[in-house]
Amino acid sequence: MNTDTNAYFSVLHPFDAYLSLWPAGKPLPSEAELHRLKSKGMQLISEVKALEGSYILQLRHLGDDARAIADYMKLQSRKIDLVLQHLLEQETKDGVHCSGLQFGGSNCQVHSEQPFDVHQLVKLTLFIREEVLSILCFAEVIDCRPDPDNQAAYLVDLAYRVINDAEVEQLVKASLNVQQKQLQSRKANR
């Protein structure tokens, strides 16, 4: 269970999020129960991401000879990711759809048409398309304020409370990848 809301930095990047209110007084699920709540598509993509990360890292330690193999494996992995992402997009999503604004390994911020109470617990599903990432976790609303650019909407800050360690790692890697792409884009536009 995660309790440190500032353990990792967050990166500005759009994504889709779905929030479902968790009943007040009902205990949050354990990490094992969280896994059982995931759809088959989410379970598959989570397992594939965990496997590919460890094997590609091992190949890189083999030196220059393995670089071509690692690149080929990344290509194959990307194809599998695209198929799994397509499957996930076909699944029904429960909860209120929100536009994600920033994310990291410990928290995220979303733009919502409806307000949420501070300290309210929610079931949160994150879809970060560019990183082919789909995460189910439970989060606490740590702030909800009117959007200064749109008074009919709200900025909602969420801190993850129940999330699998492997998915925290995936969020951290995704935020670093996004940040690297943003820096490369800025450098290219100079």
CATH architecture tag of the largest domain: Beta Barrel
CATH topology of the largest domain: Thrombin, subunit H
Helix/strand order: EHHHEEEEEH
**Rg to the nearest angstrom?**
18 Å
Number of domains: 2
The end-to-end distance, rounded to whole angstroms, is 43 Å
User: Which CATH class of the largest domain is shown?
Assistant: Mainly Beta
Strand content: 25-35%
Provide the spatial order of strands within the biggest beta sheet: 1-2-3-6-5-4
Uncertain spans: none
Count of helical stretches: 4
Task: Note the main sheet.
Answer: 6 strands, antiparallel, barrel
Protein name: PilZ domain-containing protein
Organism: Shewanella electrica
Question: What does it look like?
Answer:
This protein has four helices and six strands. Helix 2 (about 40-60) packs antiparallel against helix 3 (about 65-90). The longest helix is centred in the middle third of the chain and has 24 residues, at about 65-90. The chain is about 40% helix and about 35% strand. The chain folds into two domains: about 10-25 and about 95-190, Thrombin, subunit H (Beta Barrel), CATH 2.40.10; about 40-90. It is an alpha+beta fold. The chain has helices spanning about 30-35, 40-60, 65-90, 165-190; strands spanning about 10-20, 95-105, 105-110, 120-130, 135-145, 150-160. The chain has a six-stranded antiparallel beta barrel with strand order 1-2-3-6-5-4. About 25% of the residues are buried. Strand 2 and strand 3 (about 105-110) form a beta hairpin. The termini are far apart.
